[in-house]
């Protein structure tokens, strides 16, 4: 007799969320489109309203739908702010190390700077100049420049115009934030080096010099690894321990 394998069927609420997700991903439902009411969806799927409600909750968690009012749901397009926390948690659970994050940053950050230099707009340049001024003021006041450094890298990523790059680098940036915080108090020269690198990167972007922007961003990211080593920290430390 043939041995049949028992089917593992998804829960009904998951089947509902997967079908709506399919319609979103294939473009049948577009960002901004309103979803039918829970009652209407329950009738269409042949399930209870409570099942639809659980399916919708799953989609909200994934950033695929959002509530405009208590009863009105619309399709949403997840951005880096939606996706980065989930990706960061996954990398933390996978015990991703500082070395792995730094290696990824060494690829993405110089590329981001080069693309921004090639494509930059006056608006992007104005935002970077403003960030430079605020960073310089923070350092002069004895404040940590780390939050502004994170903003700097996010601005450059946005200026690249490459959505895949923006989405990919955001969780890595979030996970590297504690690394910057950890080493800065032990390296008083780090603020000055950061400021020097930022100025050169912005000037290269201003001049639309992609090669120079790439070179200075690579030096800037190399500095993070150098600081990590100078502080005697293990590059193979899991980010969960930062």
Automatic annotation (TrEMBL):
Keywords: DNA-binding, Transcription, Transcription regulation. Residues 10-78 form the HTH gntR-type domain. It comes from Prosthecodimorpha staleyi. The keyword DNA-binding applies. Pfam families: FCD, GntR. One of its GO terms (molecular function) is DNA-binding transcription factor activity. Signal peptide: none annotated. InterPro entries: GntR_C (IPR011711), TF_FadR/GntR_C (IPR008920), Tscrpt_reg_HTH_GntR (IPR000524), WH-like_DNA-bd_sf (IPR036388), WH_DNA-bd_sf (IPR036390). It comes from the Bacteria. SUPFAM superfamilies: GntR ligand-binding domain-like (SSF48008), Winged helix' DNA-binding domain (SSF46785). The keyword S-adenosyl-L-methionine does not apply. This is FadR family transcriptional regulator.
